[in-house]
Amino acid sequence: MRRSKGLMGDGMGARGFSMGRKLASVDLQLLILKLLEEKSRYGYEIIKELDGRSKGFYVPSPGMVYPALTYLEELGHATVAADGARKLYSITAPGKEHLTNNLAAADALFIQFDRAGERMDRVRRALDAEDNGEESEPPHERRGLRELHRARRELKLALLDKWHGSREEQQRIAVILLRAAAEIAAK
Known about the structure:
This protein is mostly helical. The protein has helices spanning 25-38, 43-53, 62-75, 93-101, 103-131, 146-162, 167-186; strands at residues 41-42, 78-83, 86-91.
């Protein structure tokens, strides 16, 4: 099966996430197959598991996950069993074979989730520590330009204003913060 070029380069996580952290459909399908290989799941469980593994960095909408599940079923890579009003999805032998052939790509995507989630956790911990007055140095030992402290305070206030914004707004902000962190670290 030919992998299409998606928002992640060659569909294998080569360049990381783009603005909005969208995955190419082939990448989402691989992630779903990887999760189904672990155990049968409901669509909502898949969304929650991707959210949890990425620590909130990537949370696909139902409008992304359910069509991917339907497509995997059409390909014969997954089966669905009715469980009341819910559908339980399982991986098939052809799905396992496809996953095996593309395991490096699926693993690379989950590694990216781990890295991005850890970065987001560091930002959250830093902001929480500052909120709780847990500065690591006493005031007389703090170094840095006044402008840097002011910029940090303004960033904190801007984040607090947007903290309960829509998922899309939070994703937009996360992309900005990750880009800023990368630029800071690169110098």
